[in-house]
Amino acid sequence: MSTHLPPGVEVISTLPGTAFGVPAGAEARTIEITIPPGDPGAPPHRHPGPIFGYMIEGEILFELEGQAPRVIKAGEALYEPGGDVIHLQGANNRTDVEARFVVTMFAEPGTPILTVVSAEELAERAHLRVS
């Protein structure tokens, strides 16, 4: 990566190419998500491929299977591997402002943006949750 960037350009986050797997024949989908104040966000779910995102405003309580919950604030980046990993939480962590972020997802054309996980599967995989 070049260290000479034009004025107004800032690299927020980088990952090595081996850190994620983009499905063969994938398309890139850029999606904006807005979560109302205090909203718990989507129920536990999976994405069909990796996601790279950036918090525009507010903050979310973000939890992936196998990772401790963490707060992601405006100006910070996020990553999800997609595939088998369950996205457990993506709640608006504030009750006074909306949370807004944009993600780019790499997925095979025609796949859903997310698939909700059943209560039975969550129970079977409870041992993978970090407290």
From TrEMBL:
Q: Name one Pfam family in it.
A: Cupin_2
Note the CDD domains from the entry.
cupin_BLR7677-like (cd02234)
Q: Which domain of life is it from?
A: Bacteria
In this chain the Cupin type-2 domain maps to: 33-103
**Do you know which InterPro entries this protein is assigned to?**
Cupin_2, RmlC-like_jellyroll, RmlC_Cupin_sf
Name this protein carries in UniProt? Cupin domain-containing protein
Q: Which organism is it from?
A: Kribbella antibiotica
| Taxonomic path | Bacteria, Bacillati, Actinomycetota, Actinomycetes, Propionibacteriales
